[in-house]
Amino acid sequence: MSHHDDHEHDLDPPGIALAAAPAPDFVDRHGRCLRNSDDDQAWADLLAPTRRRFLRSAGLVAGGLGAAVFAGSAHAATPDGSAALGDPAFRAVVPPRDVGRSPWGDHTANEPATRPASVRPRDGATGLPDAPRPYTDIYSYHAHVYFDEDTYLKAERLRLWVTERFPVELGNWNFEPRGPHVTPSFYFGFTNDLLPVVVPWLQLNSLGLTILLHPNSDDPRADHLYYTLWVNRSQPVNAYGMKRPGEPGAPEIEKILPNIVPTRTLET
């Protein structure tokens, strides 16, 4: 039998050594005799390589001894004297349950699944358009740049870059939701001839902001919901309440009247 095996067999039987063996004394560099606390000694015995092998072979780490060590070390009280997490006396404090009946009633689980009213533009009997729309139905474009309190400096920088380089129609700062746009934003409108320049420019210079690009046709509702392009991630647009073409109160086709004169040559 090897010296290593002799050492492991000299250990006390499982469950006795860690619980009953006195914590050893040792002398520090100042000559003072120090003694481990029972918890410290239990951890030392548990983590010592030879003892760890012994405990693993005895199945104690996964059984009662490991739990006992953790439970014993968690019985300390919190600074205010209340029971610490892990103490058997610990009880989480949670708000009481609400009392009453749900305003949705008690039978929502029994509601059948039915097809909602269609929200697609120009629905036919099949729910699909009969023919594609000609691209010349687009008169101009809008770009809506969204921002929040963490990204407004990026929006300010992008707005400046746009006004320095493009002959656009620039709107006001919208620091609150406005129209179908549910977050702060600013917008600029541009004519069709700028589309192949503005789109790639925004893709490269968005600064990570979410940007909605939509055409202006005779159906502003569909323009905001179905005919959109997005730079970076998309976000909800609350345009379902907008009127369809021909309905009372339907908006007119958007006009673009540039109010910006560029001051810098566009980089190429």
Strand order of the largest sheet: 4-5-3-6-7
Oligomer: single chain
CATH topology of one domain: Alpha-Beta Plaits
What letter string, H or E per element, gives the SSE order?
HHEEHHHEHEEHEHE
Helix content: 25-40%
Radius of gyration: 36 Å
Give a quick account of the main beta sheet: strands, pairing sense, barrel closure.
5 strands, antiparallel
CATH class of one domain: Alpha Beta
User: Would you tell me the overall average pLDDT?
Assistant: 79
What does the secondary structure layout of this molecule look like, with pairings?
Layout: H1 3-9, H2 17-20, E1 25-27, E2 33-35, H3 38-47, H4 49-58, H5 64-73, E3 140-146, H6 152-165, E4 169-170, E5 185-191, H7 195-205, E6 211-216, H8 220-225, E7 229-231
Antiparallel strand pairs: 1-2, 3-5, 3-6, 4-5, 6-7
Helix pairs in contact: 3-5
Characterization of this structure:
The protein has 268 residues and is of the alpha+beta class. Among the domains are: 3-73, no CATH class; 137-231, Alpha-Beta Plaits (2-Layer Sandwich), CATH 3.30.70.1240. The chain has helices at residues 3-9, 17-20, 38-47, 49-58, 64-73, 152-165, 195-205, 220-225; strands at residues 25-27, 33-35, 140-146, 169-170, 185-191, 211-216, 229-231. The protein has a 5-stranded antiparallel sheet. The protein starts with a helix and ends in a 37-residue tail after the last strand. Residues 4-21 and 60-76 have low confidence and may be disordered.
